[in-house]
Every structure is written in C-alpha cells, then in structure tokens.
Amino acid sequence: MDELRYQIDLLKAMNQKMSGREKMFRLACNTSNNAFLYYDYEINELVTFGNWEKFFAFSIDEAKDIPLILDMLEEKYVLPVRELLFLEKSGEEQRSEESCLQDGRTWYEFEARVSYGENGKPIDKIICVRNITKFKMQYEELRYLAYYDDLTGLYNRNYFVTLLTEFIRQAEQEKDIVSVLFINLDDFRKINDSMGMVVGDEVVQQYGQFLGSFSNRNVIVCRMNSDVYCMAVYDPCGSRSVEAIYKAIQDKIAQGFLLSNGTQVHVTVSIGVAEYPEASESVLELINCAEIVMFKAKAAGKSQLQYFNASMLQDFLQTVEIENKLKKAVFNKNFTLHFQPQYYTDSRKLRGMEALIRWKDENNKMISPTVFIPIAEKNGAIIPIGNWVIEESIRCYVEWKRKYGQDFIISINISSLQCRKDDFVPHILDLIRQYKVNASEVEIEITESILIEDFVEIKEKLITLREHGVRVSLDDFGTGFSSVSYLNELPIDTLKIDKSFVDKVLGDESTRIITESIVNMVSKLGYESIAEGVETEEQFTYMKKIGCDVIQGYLLGKPLSVEEVDEMFIKML
Ligand code: C2E
Ligand code: CA
Ligand code: CA
Questions:
Q1: Were both Cys, which of 107, 125, 392, 531 would link to 543 (CB 3.0–4.6 Å)?
Q2: What percent of the chain is helix, strand and coil (3-state, nearest 5)?
Q3: DSSP 3-state assignment of 501?
Q4: What's the CA-to-centroid distance between 191 and ligand 1, angstroms?
C-alpha cells in the first residue's frame, strides 16, 4: 500500500515538474518571436505553437493544410520551402536559402530539423519560422548606404568604381569602348550662396534624378560628391553616344528644372570625357582624366563638353610639377627681378622701368612668368610672390635713385588676387612710407580683367591709391574686353597698348585704324599711352607719328638684370 502511495506521489511530483517544464517551454517559445510546426512521424500528428497565430491567419492541423503556407509565398520561394516542408524528407538540417515574402512587407525564414531513431527512421521534425523583417530592413538600409547616394538615389562613388571596373573588364575582352563623363554643375556656389543650401540640395537632387534617367545596363550614373556626377557608357552608340546624351542634357537645361518653391532654374554643366582604352586602361585614371578635361571645359568658358587628349594630360602634369616646385621657390624666395626700360618717344629719355619677375627652378631652368604666374594666381601663391615683387622693386628703385640720382617711374605688375585683398592699398602705402619714396614715381600695372571682375570695389581702391599719388597703368589694352567707351570712367594715368597691336600695325589696315583711334582717345582723355613690344625702327617711327607717348620694347631695351641696370645708369651719367 505504501509502495502504491509512493508511486502515486512520485507520479504527481513528476507531473508537476513536467507541467512546470512545459510552462517554461511555452513561455520560451512565445517570447522567441518564432513560430513552430512540429510533426510526429509515429502518430502522424502536426502541431503548431509559438507565435503561429500571430504570424499567420490560418492554422495547420494536418498534412493537407501545408499548401496554405506555400500559397502565401512569392513564386520564387515556393520550391525551396516546399522542399523543406516535405515531411518525409530526410537529412540533418535544412534552411530555406532565401527569406520569404508575405504580403510584400514581412520576411520569414524557414528552418527544419529532423530527428531519427536507431533504426534510421525519422521520429519527428520541427520547422522553425522566424520573422526576420527587422533584420532584412536593416540589411537593406546598410546595402543602400553602401551602394547608393542618399540625396539623389544614384550609385555612390565606390559602387560606381566597382561597376565601372566590371565594364572595363568586359570591354577588354570584347575589344569595346567605354566613355567616362565627369559632369559638374556650373556656378553651383552661386546657387548655394544666393538661394541657400536647401535649394542647392534640390538642384543637385533633380539633376541627379535627371541624369539617372539615362541609366540602363550599358549606362551607369553616380554622384561623386557635392555637385559632381559621373557617367560611364559601355560601347557608346546611337542614343547612348556621348553626343546624344549631351544633346539631351542641353535640351533639359534649356527647359529648366522646376524647383518646389516654384522657381525655374537653368543650370549649365561642364563635362569632361575620357575613353577607355584611349585615355587610360585603369578605372581611377580614367575618372581622373575625365576630371582634368572637365576643368579644361570650365576654364574654356563652362557650359560645354570636351574630350580628353594626350596633350591635356601633359599640361596637367606640367602644372602639377610647377605647382610643387613653386611652393619651394616661394619658401626660399627663389626669384629675381628684371627691369625693362621705357622711353619717351620724342626725347628718347628714360621714362620708367617695368619690374618683371624671373624664376629659375632647381635645375637652373628658366620658367616663364607667362607659365607660372597663372598657376600662382590659381593656387594663391601669387600673394607672397606679388608682395615680394612690390617690396623688391621699391627697394631696387630706392637704391638706384640713391646711387644715380635719376628720376624715373617704377612699374609693378599686380594680379587680380593681390588687388582684391583687403590689405592691398594699405600694404603699398606702408611700403611707400617705409622706403620714403615719392608715391608719384610708383606705378601699378593692372589688366582690364581685374576691373571687369569687380569694377566698383577695385575702382575705389585705385581712387584711394591715386589720391596718395600712386600711378595706375592699364596693361595689355586691346587683348580683353577693350571697350573704349568706358575708358573715361577709369581712375588711371597710363594705358599700355598691347604688343599684338604693335606687331600688326604696319601690315594690317584695320589694326592701324584701331590703334590710331585708341592713341587719339587716350590723349583726349588726358592719359599717357605706352606702346608695348616695339621691336623695329619702323614700328617706333609709326607709333611716334600717331602720337604715342612712350615706347617699351626690345628695340630700345630688353628686360635687364639688376647688374645690367647698374651698367645702364653708369653709362647715362
Ligand atoms: P607684360 O606685363 O605684358 O610684360 C611684358 C612682357 O613682354 C614681358 O615678358 C617682356 O619681357 C615682354 N616684352 C617686352 N618687350 C618685348 C618685345 O619687344 N618683344 C617681345 N617679344 N617681348 C617683349 P615677360 O617678362 O615674360 O612677362 C610676361 C608676363 O608675365 C607679363 O606680361 C606679366 O603679365 C607677367 N608678369 C611678369 N612679371 C610679373 C610680376 O611681377 N607680377 C605679375 N603679377 N605678373 C608678372
Ligand atoms: Ca606689364
Ligand atoms: Ca603688357
């Protein structure tokens, strides 16, 4: 009897323990965010538990209900999942290769496991269904971030490089061409400054979406950064040819982009094109070449497309080399000045001397200022260089005045960037004071382009300088804008007629007419005229005859070193 009670108590205790375990097991299943399907092979029973009801609107009570699961799947997932659900299927472990989509928003992953008895027969099978929607979304987001540009939805730079690499690999096999277009919006900074960053972003976005409309299996488009896009065209032809694409871009520009604030913008682009294999066989070099050409297109007046050619790369490499050498030269003040005399036409007496910079690089090779000054203007090195020129010219001038007692004007070339600096005027006036020179013997030479860039501000500065007695000369007249009509508004003392006029004046009737009328006008306005680059006696005689005041050129004197100027003054004593 005791034995029986003991057995009953034991059974009760075991039952309690079992139901405790079952509670724990159910709790674990319900909180695991999975649904389960359990099949017992011996008694042919199917049970669902866990989150089944939460996940699915149907229940599975027997094997013939299983197709209900398949019904909710997208076509491409049906086969692998059927395989996995197939109850008699043996095998240790199965997982559906792909996640499965239900109603387009929820992703499930199916995994099955079968256990076997000693006789090798299956005992039971459990199929675990996981809701992986959150993971899938995060994955998609990461994938998007890795491949796409947030603002425009175009590919990003990295992915573009990957795809372009694939294009190039294929083109190498097929002996095809790939065109790379480097596309940059013109004057984008102005849009940002005048309309604000939000509008700027919208322009970038709309342009990006428009350029994206060219994409197909042969055209890939990306946003590189800011307002720069890149396009690669595999085997360009027909509507995919670079010309056709550019034409479509131009049409769109003419039509304009309608922004959300209602304004219509017509932003042009500068495009550089480099082709595989002609420009380069390397992906990054191709992009670089296209970028170099894009800068060329910008420099040539924007709103245009240019193609890469080998000499461009040469120019670019030369510019980079000069830029690097220039940095060292500025640091070591590795420059000298030459001075070219200017003479009054009637008396042939010395009027002044123009300071001209000279630079010999570390290999003692002379690099012309026409080559390095534009580079220095672009990268800002012209500021220290220009400051050195101003002070060194005044220093030499003071020294010669002291040694030889001659009166003459020292002319100093000034670049646009120097002129635009806030301290430009005080800097010159300080030097004049410091070296105790007569301001009316110091002349600055500026070009028309400086004035055109910022007429009001520069005019103010020139007026101030002239109020202090400093002379202002307009250099290279005739090469740029050259409107005689605005001459009377300029705060200048002297006008230098460019060498290109002097060169042609004897042989070309229309040049002669223009030159004569310039000299006439200049004298009527009370300015002094200087003819530049006079090389022959005939040119001299002609310029004198039409009333030009001063002559500068190889005929009367080439630019001289400091020592040669000393010799010149000694001869004059
Ligand atoms: P520029 O101001 O028009 O200077 C005149 C240039 O013509 C000088 O060339 C001079 O050597 C050259 N030249 C003078 N007479 C004749 C002639 O009869 N025949 C020929 N074929 N050439 C003649 P350079 O010294 O090579 O200077 C070239 C340009 O570089 C200058 O043109 C000027 O724009 C710029 N530059 C030179 N020095 C400086 C400087 O210190 N600062 C700045 N900002 N620019 C400078
Ligand atoms: Ca000059
Ligand atoms: Ca000149």
A1: 531
A2: 50, 25, 25
A3: helix
A4: 37
